[in-house]
Structures are given as structure tokens and as C-alpha cells.
Amino acid sequence: MTDLAARLEALGQQVGATWMVGFENFDGGHPFIEVSEGPVYRLVAYERGRRLMSKETRKLDEILYWALYEVTWTMAYRWAVQHPVEGKETRFTTFRRQEELLGTLDPRWAERARASRPT
After folding, report:
1. pLDDT (tens digit, 9 = 90+) per residue, 25-59?
2. Which is nearest to 63 in space by CA: 47, 46, 40?
3. Residue 10: is its pLDDT beyond 80?
4. Which SS3 state, helix, strand or coil, does residue 55 take?
5. What are the domain boundaries of the chain?
6. Any bridge partners for residue 36, and if so which?
7. 98: nearest Cα among 80, 82, 119, 84
8. Whole-angstrom distance, CA of residue 106 vs CA of residue 36
């Protein structure tokens, strides 16, 4: 888990993140990572004790992508609100900004995010 934490921290610093997905449940819909033997990685979020999300993988790159997807979405949304584009919905500006951020980490991550977007 220390290798995962170090990788998350380094990637977060690379994009200038002010917060990072961690390993503790703070409830309130904040995603966190659980690691079990195998290793098996889970990205989980709870709100008011109710599970909102749970994804599981054995691939380190996958859990890194999921975690940084959450972080860069928050960063991109804040940026889009502060930099509105006339005639464009905030979510589309957010999508583009998130793709830019993910692309600085791994170009494949930007492509993956782009492929999952609504048209």
C-alpha cells in the first residue's frame, strides 16, 4: 500500500492537486481506496453510511486511473466554473479540462476519459 500511496502522491503533485483520494472513509461521498490481499484494489464512496460507488480491480494502473479521474474531475469542474465559456455548458468545459489534466499524467488516460464522455 505504501507504493500505491507514493504513486498517488506523485501523480497528484504532477497535476497540482490540492487533495488526493486516500485510504480512509470520510463519508460524505468522498472516494477512498481499500486494499485487500491479492492485492485487490477497491475505489469506494459512502454517504451517510450508504455505499454510493464501488469498483474493484487487481491492476495498479486501473486504481490509479480511477483515483486520478476523481481528483481531476474536481479540479476541472472548479476551473470550468471560474472560466466560463459563453454558449458552452460547464460540464463540456469540465470534460475538456479534465482530459488536459489526465493527458499530462498519461495520454492513454485522456483518451480513455474522452471515449467515456457523452456526445
Report:
1. 998 999 999 999 999 999 999 999 999 999 999 99
2. 40
3. yes
4. strand
5. 2-115
6. 40
7. 80
8. 26
